Amino acid sequence: MMKLFRSSSNETAAPAARTKLTRRSSGIGEISRVLNSQEGLYVLDVGATSANNIQFFTSHGHKNYSEDLLRASLDPALRAQDSTGKPTVDSKKFLDENLVYRNEQFDIVLSWNLADYMEESLVKPTIDRFWSVLKPGGLLLAFFHTRDAGPESACYRYHVTGTDMLEMQEVRFALPGRPASEKQSPRLQRVFNNRHIENLFRDFASIKFFLARDNIREVLVVR
What we know:
This protein has helices at about 25-35, 50-60, 70-75, 90-95, 115, 120-135, 195-200; strands spanning about 1-5, 20-25, 40-45, 65, 80, 85-90, 105-110, 135-145, 155-160, 165-170, 175, 185, 205-210, 215-220. By secondary structure, the protein is an alpha/beta fold.
């Protein structure tokens, strides 16, 4: 079941690089209602590590698990060749080393903008793993760029700061094979259209789209 909503999300522009921005998030607003109505939930945050998020969820009595899956996906050890000699990424090795949790462990998964910056061959296997580790009725929140977003769109770390508010800070790190001093924002790999997104989450029970004004679609799915 798909639902489409207009979100009140916005972004406050700032002139300086890596300045923290803020935006309202309808998806976080819905997740907050669950967090505030229950105790001891298990939350998996797979974005760039945020000490703020760890403190936010644990201070509200929930258990937080964090994995920076984008950095993990860039590990040179995952690079391989297919049967024709073309370069590929070993998705089995990636999932053998990451997202190693028991089935139905989590109530909430925060995927953020991972899918847009991750190697495409890893996206569907990763979302399938999310399905496995989510409890029935559990929630997953993901952000997807619209076609109006340019290829230089910055990759952000998201900090939950309130019931429906996020603080955003550009992520920069040295890509594999580059000197540590050459930090840069990961490059947007692709833009998924709504049909592609629905296909990624086809095994989930329902999906909602929230249309924001900053070239982002927030997608909230229920396991």
